[in-house]
Amino acid sequence: MAVSKLVLAATSTKSCKVLLGLRVLAFSATLSAAIVMGLNKETKTFVVGNVGNTPVKATFTAKFQHTPAFVFFVVANAMVSFHNMLMIAVHLFGGEMEFTSFRLLSVAILDMLNVTLISAAANAAAFISEVGKNGNKHARWDKICDRFATYCDHGAGALIAAFAGVVLMLIISAISISRLAQPNKCSSSTAAAPSVLP
Amino acid sequence: MAKLTKRIGALVLRLAAFGAALAALIVMVTSRERASFFAVSLEAKYTDMAAFKYFVIANAVVSVYSFLVLFLPKESLLWKFVVVLDLVMTMLLTSSISAALAVAQVGKKGNANAGWLPICGQVPKFCDQVTGALIAGFVALVLYVLLLLYSLHSVVDPFLLQKS
Fold first, then answer.
1. Which domain holds residue B58?
2. Predicted local distance difference test score (pLDDT) of residue B154
3. Which pTM does this prediction carry?
4. Fewest CB atoms within 10 Å of the CB: A39, A187, B88, B126?
5. Where is the chain membrane-spanning (chain A) (predicted)?
6. A75 touches chain B (CB under 8 A)
């Protein structure tokens, strides 16, 4: 009973606006995560030794390209934000396209694939950042966040945005799947396609 | 008749996914190696890395869930819930494999820019077992994606073959 009420609520026209709003939020979250991590770079000079009385300085850079997990993070977030942009465009401008069940199915499947993609990317970056922040005594890996604090802060911001994107994509995917049960056109122009009541 | 074969196919898929997740869990938990060089003896266990602990926990959750769904009766109303839970389990699987793979890649190749040395040279058997666990986890993931598509098809009837 509750499930059919939920499905009915998911296919009314008000839920179309909710879906659009969620997609806009997910698009902005994943895009900002990709941009913040993509521009993440910090250069610092350290004193590595002393030759006589003069200190010897060396310059080190921390870039996101050094870690494959962060490269995957940037690419995956860019792909998911592109998917959301495409879905928003289809939603707003695709009203004239034939509204078949194939369209709903492809939207649902694409949403599911993108949910898995962004959850994988966010988690990989999160665990690598955890190693970078706390180090690992057993493997003798030093932490890097005490030396490159700004790099770590920007990375943390990108991670938070990506996890917000994960939650949003999960909700969007659930709504898309429930729209498969009762296809309902989202355009407000005509009172067309009355939904089939269970 | 076709429905029965489809149901049996789905049950076989779920049993295979349960087996793969359980195998990944067991192989990761039993991966342990003790190596000594100079006067230092180090032991590599799966609890050393947070990502491997998460992998074990995620695969345990997926195994228990698959085992419970195997016994769900055919006409239960919970099948609609199974669709969403399958999606959540697929997300758990991808995230755990991705995290474990990211950390294992650093363990195998190291990260020259951060000064992290690879550890697979000292504990090759541990690395091999972790690789095996990751492969089993990947098989479980593929099976779960197929299961998700099947549950979507059977519960929601996306092609509207049944006029209600």
1. 1-156
2. 76
3. 0.86
4. A39
5. 20-39, 69-93, 105-128, 156-177
6. no
